[in-house]
Amino acid sequence: MMIQINKPPVFLPPPPLQWCWTTAAVPTRAARNLLVLNAPTRPTTIPTTISMTRQVRHSVLPIMPMMKRRGRRAMAASDSVSAAAVVDVDMEIRGKKNTKNNKLKINKNNKVFKAYGDPCLDLFFNVTQRPSDYREKQQETEKEYHTNMFNYLRQQLPLAWSHDPLTTLKLIFNLSSCRIGGSKCYCEAFEFAAVWLHHNHPNTLLCNFGSLADSFGPLFTLLDVLYGLLVPPQDQLDHTLEELLQRENLNSHADRYAHDPTYRLLHDRGMDAFAERLKSDLEKLKQNKLELKPCDYDDDVDDDTDYSAKRGSLDAHAYHDLHVSGATYCLLTGNPWDAHKGRSISLEESTARRLLSPESDVSREWERLRKEVLAPLKNYSCRQSRFGRWERCEVKKYLEEVKAATTIIKPDALLPYDILRYLEDGNVGEAAVLQWKAMVQKVKEGGKFKNCWAVCDNGGCQSRSLSLGLLVYELSEEPWNQKVMNFSLPDSRCKFIPPIHFLPQLHSIQGLDDVKSKFSFLTRMERRMGISSICIDIQMVFDAILEVAVKENLKPEQMIKKLFLFTDCAGYDWKGYEILYEAVRSMFEEKGYGDDAVPHFVFWDLWWGYRSPSFDFTHRGVTVLRGYSKNLVKSFLDNGGDFRPHHVMEVAIADKEYQTLAVVD
Q1: Range of the structural domain that residue 599 is part of
Q2: Each residue of 187-236: pLDDT tens digit?
Q3: Mapping DSSP to helix (H, G, I), strand (E, B) and coil, where does residue 52 land?
Q4: Residues 330, 459: one domain?
Q5: Distance, CA of 413 to CA of 52 (rounded, Å)
Q6: Which candidate, 612, 608, 607, 570, places its Cα nearest to that of 185?
Q7: Between 462-475 and 429-445, two packed helices, what is the crossing angle to 10 degrees?
Q8: Which has the closest alpha carbon to 370: 382, 360, 378?
Q9: Between residues 93 and 25, which one has the greater pLDDT?
């Protein structure tokens, strides 16, 4: 039932943390309204049209004014109404008739999912791993969280597959991947999606099953999928390991293998891939390529004596000969859950049939193999994980080739961060300068970023923030290319009671002509290291822009069109920005500039901890992006800083590993 409410005005409970105005008046020099991370105040009357499927409660939520950091999310109020069943909210202040991209979907458990107008985008942005502090935010147990995701996947996967099968397949594998930048590593959701794929498109899963262990996850992922076909993921959530062990029926695999040809084909494909990797490990051991130590043959000793010295002598180019798969760990795991899964799918028996001759005494040969070969390999595999794969730095290798003139300079070969970290290198520093100039020239020829500017936050992700900010400064036009901005503390610093108020500071870099001097200047600006909860006066940024425009007598077409804030601060809720936008627009009009002269604000949280980049929303005047990956930076450069939801999704599945996936049925 559709209910239209105009009188009295209705306000939905705001998010527990949001940028807000301390008063409702248009800001002036005399009485500035600071835009802070604070307990939100309610704006003046805003007519609201609400379409709802259930009654909306109007109670005021308890608000937590502080932001918790390094959980990387803001704390939220402990009230279920924060996930109210609102299907469509159209605030007239936005001035939009089409609110298609602002609609929300909800499931039976009142879990709110945003709709992006594309089933694949919905699947990509809404299915995410449970944040570390999610219990504090929603008071939702891990089981409830995964159940909500399973219900959503059940309804969304058919829609996405009908819309674009190949993209949906890539998004399913994106859930599994732990190796590729921008992947989610959400194993529970991937297992559910793989089971759905097996039931609806078995040949497609069979065709791409081997890619799981090759590119998208640990070898045990194969076993997880096979186990999920015997015990559905929801059953794994509903029962403890003890309950599953009590009802453990090893005959279920035998029955399924005998009577279900699709399961049999998939099981054989998985076991073949598993045995191939184990055979490769055994061959390396046979040829004495592995640096096994005496302690590897002792199950009771974990000795890493002198290993720290040994790791430094590893030959990076020959390391592929020293690496072994995780096959032995899967066979000899001490994890009760993993051991139960291995028994359920007959892992040991299936491997023995592929490794041992039928004429041999399988049980006796397997025991000998376990003690003399598999156990040492497992210990070696666990020990090698401490130093990981050591590979020669491809960035420095390329710069050395540029220096030696053995290769031509490729402007798009390196990213800004990769170049700037070698500026002061005594060996390849000059090559890095040449590479930077070539990259800037290529982007400039495309006419990108000429009407852009940036604010650099010298925080935890300083190198990323400054590299992107310096590139934007280099590409902007006069007078903006001679000015930089960061955030710094005010003069009175006697009280460090969070949240700390940071003020934008405008600096001139006029006279600094080379990239080394500019980058050195940026790195010397005041830093925010160690300060987690902060307030930033965003209005002062627009004040500074307007002041420069008036002083330089700039025309509207010379104004900044897009303003970037590169930071590593999470937890901001920019819905209050709409009020700020209206105030800033009024300020610009007073100075003779229209709506088109107000810069679009792009807030990019560069923190490395996000499993996958997320596109929070684009409202009038602001875009919020979270996450960092090489592909995302490439998209940033290719599209001139113009981010759309499909850009973020496309870069997440753009790596070469995804190009091997194929839809068969």
Answers
A1: 394-657
A2: 899 999 999 999 999 999 999 998 887 778 778 888 999 999 999 988 88
A3: strand
A4: no
A5: 51
A6: 612
A7: 50
A8: 378
A9: 25
Report the C-alpha dihedral over residues 618, 619, 620, 624, rounded to 10 degrees: -50
Beta carbons within 8 Å of 58's beta carbon, 6+ residues apart? 10, 11, 13
Tokens for 77? 């109020």
Query: H or E element: which one contains 153?
Result: helix 142-163
What are the Cα distances from residue 503, in Å, to 19, 37, 562, 622?
A: 15, 14, 20, 20
Cα–Cα dist 585/582, whole Å: 5
How many domains does the structure of the chain reveal? Answer: 2
Structure confidence by residue, pLDDT tens digits, 257-288: 999 999 999 999 999 988 888 888 888 777 76
Which of these, 339, 385, 352, lies nearest to 279 by C-alpha position? 352
Backbone φ, ψ for residue 354 (5° rounding): -90, -15
Residues 182 and 189: their CA atoms lie apart, in Å, by 16
507: which strand partners? Answer: 484
Distance CA 144, CA 140 (A): 6
Count other Cβ atoms within 10 Å, centred on residue 544.
16
Domain boundary among 359, 384, 409: 384
- β-partners of residue 52 are 86
| Chain position carrying tokens 């598993």 | 274
Amino acid code (one letter) for 480: W
Question: Six-digit token pair at 260?
Answer: 């279900």
Alpha-carbon span 581 to 589, nearest angstrom: 12
The answer to whether position 133 is within a domain reads no
Contact 331, 351 (CB under 8 A): yes
Q: How far apart are the C-alpha atoms of 663 and 561, rounded to whole Å?
A: 42
365 vs 387: CA distance, rounded Å: 33
